[in-house]
Amino acid sequence: MSENKLYTVSIYTENNIGLLNRISAIFQRRHINIESINSSVSEIENVSKWTIVVKLTEDQMKKIIGQIEKQVEVIKAYYHTEEETIYQESCLFKIKSDLLFEERQIQNIIKESNARIVTVNKAFFVLEKSGRRSEIELLHRELSAFGILQFTRSGRIAVTKTPMEISKMLETFQH
Amino acid sequence: METKTIRNNEQSTSKGIRISGSEAVVRSLIAEGVDVLYGYPGGAIMPVYDELFKFQNEIHHVLTRHEQGATHAAQGYARISGKVGVAMATSGPGATNLITGIADAQIDSTPMVCITGQVGSHLLGSDAFQETDIVGISTPVTKWNHQVTKASEIPEVIAKAFYIAKSGRPGPVLIDITKDAQFEEFDFKYEKCTGIRSYKPIPETNPTDLQAAADLINNAKKPLVVWGQGVILGEAEAEFKAVIEKAGLPSAWTILGASAIPSTHPLNVGMVGMHGNYAPNVLTNECDVLIAIGMRFDDRVTGNLATYAKQAKVIHFEIDPAEVDKNVKTDVAVLGNSKDTLAAILPLLKENLHTDWHQKFKDLYQVEFDKVIKNDLHPTKEGLSMGEVLKEINMQSKGKAAIVSDVGQHQMIACRYADFNVSKSNITSGGLGTMGFALPAAIGAKMGAPERDVVMIAGDGGYQMTIQELGTIFQTKVPVKIVVLNNNFLGMVRQWQQLFFDKRYASTEMENPDFVAIARGYHINAKSVSKREDLASAVKEMMETEGPYFLEVMVEKEDNVFPMIPTGASVSDVRLE
Ligand SMILES: Cc1ncc(C[n+]2csc(CCOP(=O)(O)OP(=O)(O)O)c2C)c(N)n1
Ligand SMILES: [Mg+2]
């Protein structure tokens, strides 16, 4: 059997409330944990795009893609390896404002990590950082030492290096 | 009725006619060609029932005695007619009672549309009386489902439902309609659905795959076909027959594939799987090319996958791309509708006979006959065997009856020994193995094919799971033949207890009621036989009776079904005793 790997699943769908249930059930039945999930509009009008990160074997991945694609409201599903995608995550830190002025080190960390200050007020400031998981984790470690009031990280978003044939597919559909 | 039509005509505009959502439901069903539906009323679906009352000359609603019965009846109707079966229920408990039948239809690819009433949309999510999230509950067991909260959505959603249920690989669809949407008026116009952009029911066939499959078949020395329901669902019986006859392919069937070609066809080598025939099971592990057609390599068919047909090249004709390589790795997958792909491969095939290879099937049949079949059909014991009942039914129905079986030993015996000479003759719950399926499914089957003899065969256990449908039979007078093979046991479970649990018969022995009295209580002609000399005349009486008929046959209590592939064993380790 092949080994477990991280795959980025991109699913193009019609906008439908119930679909999330259907898709997550496909993973759940096989006891596969969803590492992250993101839903947004896509490059095509009225088509949603979901980006799901899962860890499994390629064999499992192929079977699951088949079962996802067979859902009536799924237009097309793809899976890609880490090497085949450009991907990012984003995160927010909420930190006491005092620290910004009292701890020189914090300013250095912010500069070096390419993080961005979103807002500052008397009580707290909010820091935003986008990047690979490892970069976000590093920043989290560094800031933890000073105390983080709140932290949140988004699901992965990704685009592929090669083109997706989805638009062409939709063009051929006559309604 | 009359006045209603006139009023509607008066109000009709270019946009359509102004009617309520509930009337739209009924008119949409009629527009889809639905002549009969099965269901049970209740608060949240009452407006639709009110319209069904008004339209009763155009569409016949059958009141079953339980919503599960409505789904199985719809399934029986769909399985025998190839049309979409329709079931209807109220919200809450009515809707949840549909779930077993929906799950059954999903796994057995049966086209079915279920319509449920729902509480008013302002109450959704509030734990209102009889509110249940039926869309959420049914999601994993439906091909598609949808909740309607506005009347104007009704025609489009129903059109979509029928299209999805029937096209591609068929399956069940559920539509949940809130009560306010049923009352709301709108301009009704019906258009059939012909396509959905995100849904491709039939995948394209690649000509290279067809040629590769043909090459493998043409060069095979020991080819074996295993066909499934895909041949029947694709209405590809004639194309299938032409292919196997031209290439001389021994062909075995899964339970749901049964009857696509007659039992007596010389290339029909019997059933595969757990209680299938000896020859095709053993020779699965000897063939050089395994040609799977419209089947899905269920574990009851394959036994242990690690030792399944490892020596063979595998060709898979399949409409559902998700089935390819799911359980068994294929060498060539031919995607598409079986009717088209089989027609397309026919000219590419060479004529062949494979005489020596066929002889192997005959030799192994003889082994099975001596060890199993002889005793099943011509028992020397005093007690009646299930097999001899089937033999008698075959004789008296001239092998033309549609057999609707329940789940258990009697089901396996029915599938093994019934003569299937007409397609769509084996109506049984294959994938889900739902006890209680048969009696309501037989009602639907008889209504879906009134010209056919429909013989239901159930065990004493499963029969009691939906026995209340005798009320439906009594009320509708639908002339189904009801046979209960009574061994006073949950026989199939008892068999496993005997073989694998040292005969500890935990909760499998049953004290049964007077089944004849129960049938007569519903004014159904009934008889019970326990002696061999009474069997033939009883079956004759049953077949010759005009209306419904109940026949109980007391059979040997502790007979076992063989051959058997124990769970986890290889198909070639099929046991004969
Ligand atoms: C709804 C349901 N519950 C339980 C089972 C498990 N089961 C399979 S066969 C069987 C025994 C069936 O007994 P009976 O109907 O008398 O048929 P027999 O095997 O005796 O012919 C049982 C309990 C099932 N298949 N379906
Ligand atoms: Mg029994």
Automatic annotation (TrEMBL), chain B:
CDD domains: TPP_AHAS, TPP_PYR_POX_like
Cofactor note: Binds 1 thiamine pyrophosphate per subunit.
EC number(s) given by UniProt: 2.2.1.6
Keywords: Amino-acid biosynthesis, Branched-chain amino acid biosynthesis, Magnesium, Metal-binding, Thiamine pyrophosphate, Transferase
Superkingdom per UniProt: Bacteria
Chain ranges of the Thiamine pyrophosphate enzyme TPP-binding domain: 406-553
Thiamine pyrophosphate enzyme central domain mapped to chain residues: 210-345
Cofactor field: thiamine diphosphate; Mg(2+)
One GO BP annotation of this record: isoleucine biosynthetic process
The keyword Magnesium belongs to this UniProt entry's keyword annotation: yes
Matching InterPro entries: Acetolactate_synth_lsu, AHAS_TPP, DHS-like_NAD/FAD-binding_dom, THDP-binding, Thiamin_PyroP_enz_cen_dom, Thiamin_PyroP_enz_TPP-bd_dom, TPP-bd_CS, TPP_enz
Cellular component aspect of the GO annotation: acetolactate synthase complex
Pathway: Amino-acid biosynthesis; L-valine biosynthesis; L-valine from pyruvate: step 1/4; Amino-acid biosynthesis; L-isoleucine biosynthesis; L-isoleucine from 2-oxobutanoate: step 1/4
Keyword NADP: no
Family classification: Belongs to the TPP enzyme family.
NCBIfam families found in the cross-reference section: acolac_lg (TIGR00118)
Protein name: Acetolactate synthase
Gene designation: ilvB
